[in-house]
Amino acid sequence: MLSKVFFAAATACGLFLSSVNAHMVIRSPVPYGADSLNNSPLEPDGSDFPCKQRSGVYDVTTMNNMPVGVPQTLAFTGGASHGGGSCQVSVTLDKAPTKDSDWKVIHSIIGGCPTNDTGNISGDPKYEGAATFDFSIPKGIPNGQYTLAWTWFNKVGNREMYMNCAPITVTGGADNNDVLNSLPSMFVANVPADKCTTTEGTDVVFPDPGNSVETGRSANPGKPSGSACGASDSSGSGGSPAGPPAYSSAASFAAPASTQATAPSYGTGSSSPTGAPANPAKPPFPFRGAGVVNGGVSASTFQIIPTAGPAPAAPTGATSPSSDTASEGSDSGNTDAGSSAPPSYQAPSSANSITSSGSCSGGAVTCPTPGSVVCIGNSQWGLCDINNCAVPMALAAGTSCAAGVVSKRHLGRHQRSHLHHGRTT
């Protein structure tokens, strides 16, 4: 009997240690201090913000060279994926960032990062089967050496913030900081949680996600809460320094007719694929909802939906996306499906200059407030982009959308009574 108890205790301890030691770290780009980087989240009090401060935190083992506009791969090692969540990729000109560094967001992923699985994908700390994602350095960013940060807000488990940093060298960019300065600031939460916190079971919707946003198919969007959300200095106290667009309780919209969007090419060369226009419109706010992409993608996982301009014909040989049952966390990720380059960054002149054209393409619907969650019919939701368009996405099972809030569906009084009666008879 004692041996059985000992075995059960040892097994439980082993599972606990497996979970503790199998958190996620980035392997691409190659991080600073790869030999000293552990896979735990930032300290709850923010004392090791940014970049998990430690001895050798900014040791360079590999310099990551990144020409502007060229797709780069975000890849992970580890299996404690905590149900996925939301991630950002940000940069700073500081080569040894401090709490006072100014981080600028170049890509946001809402839901499905680093996986779309409901729990942990593996107990192996060396597991490399999580989803991969594409991002690129926006055109117009100045040349030079930067620090890149991957930040992650897990969906399931303790309210945490993960942050890994990597050295990068940017080439082919501009000779001024105009585009860099126009980018939104990195979101910070849960360090500490009393300033700004995310809600367990939801994929946090960043107050200001930037112009390159990717949304997971099964995302369950949620707003951060706290007095400092969207209003601090990115110094480990929650929020972000830039004034974000306010969240609003958006009105519901009627679901549009089913539309099959096609994949435009945003190449910078003079030639165009067969059937594509010579100069396709470049959406300044490319959402990857069901997946709108700012770069190459795998046709088996995402489809490209332009948020502005006419939808061009699909290039010859293009494949249609798979059904919504595909899991982003179970495939090799968001790999390049062609040679087209991503669109250049289009910085808006000011938030007040954003106006709706009254029409949206690719099945998107018009919406009033960029950055807000909108309810579309009874079974869809969307994120309002900078063009005042929202791409419809299916609600996760067991959730509903009302007044701009996605929440778990509640049973009516009659149905609860009926179910209770059924259990007691």
Automatic annotation (TrEMBL):
Bias type Low complexity, positions: 224-235, 245-279, 306-327, 339-353
Polar residues composition bias: residue spans: 328-338
Keywords, in A-Z order: Signal
UniProt keyword Metal-binding present: no
Signal sequence region: 1-22
Region ranges (Disordered): 198-283, 306-353
The name this protein goes by in its record: Uncharacterized protein
